[in-house]
Structures are given as C-alpha cells and as structure tokens.
Amino acid sequence: MDQLIARFPEQLEEALQIADKAKITSHDHKIHKVYVAGLGGSGIGADFVSEFIRDECKIPYTVGKGYSIPAYVDQNTLAIASSYSGNTEETLYSFEQIEKSGAKIVVISSGGKLIEIAKEEGYDFVQVPGDWPSPRACLGFSLVQQLGVMFKMGLISDESLKSIKSSITLIESKSEAIKTEAKEIADKLFNKLPIIYTTDRMSSVAVRLRQQINENSKALCWHHVIPEMNHNELVGWRDKNQDLAVIYLRNDDDFKRNNVRIEINQQILSKYTDTIINVYSKGNDLIEKAMYLVYLGDWVSWYLSQLRGMDSIEVDVIDFLKGELAKV
C-alpha cells in the first residue's frame, strides 16, 4: 500500500493522458443533469468531482451509492457508471435501470461486466489500467475520468483538469514533508478513535480519510462537516474522553464565518479531549488543496496501519461479505 500511495502523482498523470484520449460521443438529447452510480473507491471519485465543479457546472450533478436510481434519470441525463472492477454488484443493478432510461451512458472501469456490456451495446467507455491491486488506491483514475467526461460533454471547462495537472507538481515537491507530517499525525492518533471535521467544501476529503483509516488502518472513526456539525453533533460532546482524537482539515481560505465556528468549536472540545490536531492544506485552488490533503491523509492511514500492526492491503471481511452474498 505504501508503494501504491507513493504512485498517486504518477497515477494522476496517467489518468490525465487517458482522459485526453477518451472517445466520448454526443447525445441526441440536451443534457439537463448528471447522475453517477458508484460505490467505495469508485464512488468517492464522484464525491470529489461534485465539489470541484459546483461553482462552474450549471446543471445538477448527483451521486448514487445503492441498488436503485432516481426517477429523474431519463433521456436528458448523462449517466456515468463507475466501478474499478466492473463487477460491483450495486452498480450493475443500477446500470440495468440506467439502460432502460434512455440516458447518455458512459462507463468508467478497468474491465469486468461493465466494460463487456459497454462494448456489446456500443456505449461510450473509458478503460483504466486493471493492474492496481486495490480499488481504493485508484481514486485518481476515477475522479480524473469523470472530469474528462464532463469536459468532453461540454458541461465544464478544462480548468479542473489543469488544476489536477498542477496538483501533481505540488504534491511531488512536498512529498517528503507530507510523509513527515503524516507520521506525526499517525503517532497522535495511535490507540485513539479519530474524529474528522472539515468545512462543507471539503467533505469529500474527510470521507476519503475516514475510509482510508477504515480500510488501511483497520480502525473505526467518523467525520462530520461544519457548519452542519454545529447544529447537532456539537451537543453530543459531554463526556471527557482522552481516547478521542479530533482532526480538523483546514484551508487558509476557508469562509471566515466557518473559521470563527472552528475556533469556538475547539474551545468547547478541548474540555473533553486533549488531542486536537489542525491540518492545513497547501495549494492555489480547491483541487490542489484537496489533492494535497488526500495524499497526506493516505500516508496518515498507512503509518497508522504500521503502528497498529495491520496489513493495509487486506480486506478479508469485505471478501467474506461478497462471498456470502454470492450464495444468495
């Protein structure tokens, strides 16, 4: 896993090349909305894209992470099915319904049934390399291809793709410093329950870190976003517990009212735990900052897995679940 994480900048570069070469055809109907079906390491890419394009894209962009699709998916919809393996059960169920909707279909996958169907039925597809042993290590392939599809469909400009390019230079130049900081954070999280907070514009980064701690570090944690967290979860802080560790993912340009909220939050939380960690992004725009924090968070999860004596690649319980489902 450490080798896969180290290759993240390389993956982003390869993903940009794939996106540039992808053949995406036009649709007979005007696109009024975008729907993405995807789960896990494939679904999180859509969450990032949703945040990256929300200030530019003029139509709704929604993500589905279950077996069914919304009734609004129709011939005026760009429907993206994203599954690294191409065999994700829930995505295949959703795909069957998408095919009946008349939507413009694009598949993003390394192979499996999704690519097989796309080839048979003539749907557009973007095939990514299939030699990465862990779908969660393929975030770059997923999110960049979705940005590429959106660009080629004329729904966004190429500015997001340019920011992905510049983020590669950023994280490569800061790589050693990132790893040093990640190890320091992991040391503070060891033997504690991590709680991740960030502002709503960075919720996907918080989700990513939570999922990486779950899968790589084999540990539970949770996350919430500000300001919503101030309207509910904040009230739940009542018991002093030094086994809790709070991580704030922050940016130097966070909305000023949210910064005020964070400072007040930390005054309150410091009564209940001594471990409060502020992690600041680097970069010139939202995408650069997000990619920086993703890279940092991935290393945190790996260093924490080492402290916990865990195999960061192993996901036996998920394999067991899939095996049991296959029997039904």
Strand ordering within the main sheet: 2-1-3-4-5
Classified by CATH, the class of the largest domain is Alpha Beta
Could you tell me the strand content as a percent range? 15-25%
> How many β-strands, per DSSP?
9
Shape: globular
Order of helices and strands: HHEHEEHEHEHHHEHEEHEHH
What's the CATH H-level homologous superfamily of the largest domain?
Glucose-6-phosphate isomerase like protein, domain 1
The overall number of domains is 2
Distance between the termini: 32 Å
Calculate the mean pLDDT score and round it. Answer: 96
Walk me through this protein's architecture.
The chain is of the alpha/beta class and 328 residues long. It folds into two domains: 2-158, Rossmann fold (3-Layer(aba) Sandwich), CATH 3.40.50.10490; 174-307, Glucose-6-phosphate isomerase like protein, domain 1 (Rossmann fold). Helix content is 49%, strand content 16%. It has twelve helices and nine strands. The strands form two sheets. A five-stranded parallel β-sheet has the order 2-1-3-4-5, sandwiched between helices. α2 (8-21) packs antiparallel against α7 (159-173). The chain starts with a helix and ends with a helix. The mean pLDDT is 96.
